[in-house]
């Protein structure tokens, strides 16, 4: 049986189910209890689990992030709520120097099973410090797993897997998707990491898209279908680990690829995936692999400017048409 | 030397031996560096032995500690063995961290050591989180967070002290004030008093002579007991002294401290010599017995060095092991990054 629920509700259900199943799981972060976060994602949890397991903290991101690392090293399973993805810069030492490296530096003796839930996504008119999509920065660090759910279905299944994982996992939720609905099973399910979803099958071009960019790719694919271009959409679901095989198999079939992610384009997720396609499926390609990330500028406030910085369906469709026609996007 | 005689002979003997073991470990580590047999460099704990031993002797194996870049002393005091420690120092497979951590991350995890940390102040969150875990899981272990005076300049400490005080967590912040923040006198980096900083959060703060193992142990024993009753957190400033430079390569240090000052601490305030004298005065051990203990430990350390020098390095296949728990080899897992 399935029913339609919001992305936000899916996250809430995943946490509630795992907290019922495992008493070592707790939630920690700013305004996670009575307030249920500014996005109301966690509403109702404190009523069920109490303030001992749904812990409101002072505005001290490095402090509670570090405490989550220590709690994880001593048989607890904390879920850290980082109110905005932009605040990752505040917790970098605890996340990247401590959580990510503890298992390795201890020769495998200490484990850090924690989940860092945070968000991403521009076009909410929140300017440069509340709009960033910083998944590439985290994905760069060995020892961290990174999940990017693209709908309520993925949000629930990936979060439950993350909570049960024995490693630090960072989940980026697109804050513009919290009210989006999708069909979600009533029965329990988990989505394993490292298994991409072939969202739509196609013949002519592969669109690899993460998080909300899957919606962008779907819209683009609809437009392309009207022009007789059949686009295949791959949602990696986790970028660490990355299901390279599913992506490469698709590109071997279609011979063309555009990679879409809302992080900055340079040195980003799109660059990494495009490089792997170029290295490993080069002789199957009929066109250069195209990266479509966010523009390499801080996110501007003005709607007239902000909307220019993110990949759009029409932009994806335009690029797809060109490379399917054999045109070069950049001078040779 | 405080003269409480609250312990039995066995306890005194163990405290003395543990301090001598730390000194012996460090003397050998220094020699390994000077003879170019050790990769990298290391930060010597010599001079501060009464701090690690006084505190760790008040803890059980279930109690946790977090350690620092100057962490060999904590590691020994929390129950580690010489062989696996020297193997770690030399990057050998039998090291406590399979050679992946080295001097700055050395820890015997099975005795509750959550790791030595090479970021100054980097473990303050971890220690406080371990204390939160104890409360969350309903367990009665206490966590001691070791850090130096230099780490009191890190903002993280104030964030976690605030939360520890709000939530009455069973954590003891143990600041080893050895007078120097790397190459700078502490008075040049610390305004006001350190105890006042903890007190500002409503945390009871104590100062103790860090060269007096019994004073350290008595205070810690009381505070650990109070932590277990839910009366934590606590702060202790332990006045101590670092015999060597910031690290083994910091040899010409006249520009920040005098040889006279070093000589005075070593001759008048050495924690091992002074405790040895007290043991003699109290007729707990004779001078001959003390010498015998020293020699036995020295021989044990030298044998462990020899063992570690001859021990094998990790197999090269281990380079991408232990990146993720539950994953044998990270590169295969990450999507065939080997190509």
From TrEMBL, chain A:
UniProt keyword Oxidoreductase, yes or no: yes
Keyword Oxidoreductase set for record: yes
GO molecular function, one term: oxidoreductase activity
Obligatory cofactor(s): thiamine diphosphate
Pfam families: Transket_pyr, Transketolase_C
Keyword annotations from UniProtKB, A to Z: Oxidoreductase, Pyruvate, Thiamine pyrophosphate
Protein name: Pyruvate dehydrogenase E1 component beta subunit
PANTHER family: PYRUVATE DEHYDROGENASE E1 COMPONENT BETA SUBUNIT (PTHR43257), PYRUVATE DEHYDROGENASE E1 COMPONENT SUBUNIT BETA (PTHR43257:SF2)
Domain of life according to the entry: Bacteria
Record domain Transketolase-like pyrimidine-binding: where: 5-180
UniProtKB/TrEMBL annotation, chain B:
Location of the Dehydrogenase E1 component domain: 18-315
Family annotation (InterPro entries): DH_E1 (IPR001017), PDH_E1_Alpha_Subunit (IPR050642), THDP-binding (IPR029061)
GO MF, one annotated term: pyruvate dehydrogenase (acetyl-transferring) activity
Gene Ontology biological process terms from the UniProt entry: pyruvate decarboxylation to acetyl-CoA
Gene3D superfamilies noted in UniProt: 3.40.50.970
SUPFAM superfamilies cross-referenced by the UniProt entry: Thiamin diphosphate-binding fold (THDP-binding)
Record's keyword terms, sorted: Oxidoreductase, Pyruvate, Thiamine pyrophosphate
Cofactor section: thiamine diphosphate
Described function: The pyruvate dehydrogenase complex catalyzes the overall conversion of pyruvate to acetyl-CoA and CO(2). It contains multiple copies of three enzymatic components: pyruvate dehydrogenase (E1), dihydrolipoamide acetyltransferase (E2) and lipoamide dehydrogenase (E3).
Name of the protein described by the UniProt record: Pyruvate dehydrogenase E1 component alpha subunit
């Amino acid at each position: 049986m399935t029913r339609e629920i919001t992305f936000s509700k899916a996250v809430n259900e995943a946490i509630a189910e795992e907290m019922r199943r495992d008493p070592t799981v707790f939630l920690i972060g700013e305004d996670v209890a009575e307030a249920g976060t500014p996005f109301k994602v966690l509403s109702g949890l404190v009523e069920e689990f109490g303030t001992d397991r749904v812990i409101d903290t002072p505005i001290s991101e490095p402090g509670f992030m570090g405490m989550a690392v220590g709690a994880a090293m001593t048989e607890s399973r904390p879920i850290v709520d980082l109110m905005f993805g932009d605040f990752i810069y505040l917790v970098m030492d605890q996340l990247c120097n401590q959580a990510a490296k503890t298992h390795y530096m201890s020769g495998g003796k200490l484990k850090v099973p924690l989940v860092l839930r945070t968000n991403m996504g521009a076009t909410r008119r929140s300017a440069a410090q509340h709009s960033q999509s910083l998944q590439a920065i985290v994905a760069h660090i060995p020892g961290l797993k990174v999940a990017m759910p693209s709908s309520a279905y993925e949000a629930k299944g990936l979060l439950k897997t993350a909570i049960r994982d024995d490693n630090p996992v960072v989940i980026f939720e697109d804050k513009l998707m919290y009210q989006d609905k999708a069909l979600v099973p009533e029965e329990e399910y988990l989505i394993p990491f490292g298994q991409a979803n072939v969202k739509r099958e196609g013949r002519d071009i592969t669109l690899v898209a993460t998080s909300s960019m899957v919606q962008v790719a779907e819209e683009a694919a609809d437009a392309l279908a009207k022009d007789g271009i059949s686009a295949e959409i791959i949602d990696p679901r986790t970028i660490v680990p990355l299901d390279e095989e599913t992506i490469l198999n698709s590109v071997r079939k279609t011979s063309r690829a555009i990679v879409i992610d809302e992080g900055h384009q340079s040195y980003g997720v799109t660059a990494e995936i495009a490089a792997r396609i170029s290295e490993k499926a080069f002789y199957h390609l009929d066109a250069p692999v195209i990266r479509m990330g966010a523009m390499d500028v801080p996110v501007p406030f003005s709607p007239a400017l902000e909307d220019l910085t993110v990949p759009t369906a029409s932009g994806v469709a335009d690029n797809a048409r060109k490379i399917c026609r054999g045109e070069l996007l950049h001078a040779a | 030397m405080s003269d409480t005689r609250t312990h039995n002979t066995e306890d005194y003997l163990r405290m003395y031996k543990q301090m001598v073991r730390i000194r012996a470990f460090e003397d050998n580590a220094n020699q390994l560096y000077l003879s170019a047999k050790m990769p990298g460099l290391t930060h010597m704990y010599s001079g501060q032995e009464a701090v690690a031993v006084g505190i760790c002797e008040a803890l059980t194996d279930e109690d946790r500690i977090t350690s620092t870049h100057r962490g060999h002393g904590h590691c020994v005091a929390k129950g580690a063995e010489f062989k696996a420690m020297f193997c770690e120092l030399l990057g050998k497979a039998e090291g406590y961290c399979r050679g992946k951590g080295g001097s700055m991350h050395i820890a015997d995890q099975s005795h509750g050591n959550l790791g030595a940390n090479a970021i100054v102040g980097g473990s303050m969150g971890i220690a406080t989180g371990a204390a939160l875990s104890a409360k969350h899981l309903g367990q009665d272990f206490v966590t001691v967070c070791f850090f130096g005076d230099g780490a009191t300049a890190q903002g993280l400490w104030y964030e976690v002290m605030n939360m520890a005080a709000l939530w009455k967590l069973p954590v003891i912040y143990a600041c080893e004030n050895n007078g120097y923040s790397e190459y700078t006198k502490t008075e040049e980096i610390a305004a006001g008093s350190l105890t006042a900083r903890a007190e500002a959060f409503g945390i009871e703060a104590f100062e103790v002579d860090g060269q007096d193992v019994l004073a350290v142990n008595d205070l810690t024993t009381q505070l650990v007991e109070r932590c277990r009753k839910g009366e934590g957190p606590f702060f202790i400033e332990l006045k101590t002294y670092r015999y060597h430079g910031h690290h083994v390569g910091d040899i010409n240090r006249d520009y920040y401290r005098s040889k006279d000052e070093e000589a005075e601490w070593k001759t008048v305030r050495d924690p091992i010599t002074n405790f040895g004298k007290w043991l003699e005065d109290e007729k707990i051990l004779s001078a001959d017995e003390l010498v015998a203990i020293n020699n036995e430990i020295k021989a044990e350390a030298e044998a462990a060095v020899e063992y570690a020098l001859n021990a094998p390095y990790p197999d090269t296949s281990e380079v991408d092991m232990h990146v993720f728990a539950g994953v044998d080899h990270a590169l295969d897992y990450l999507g065939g990054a080997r190509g």
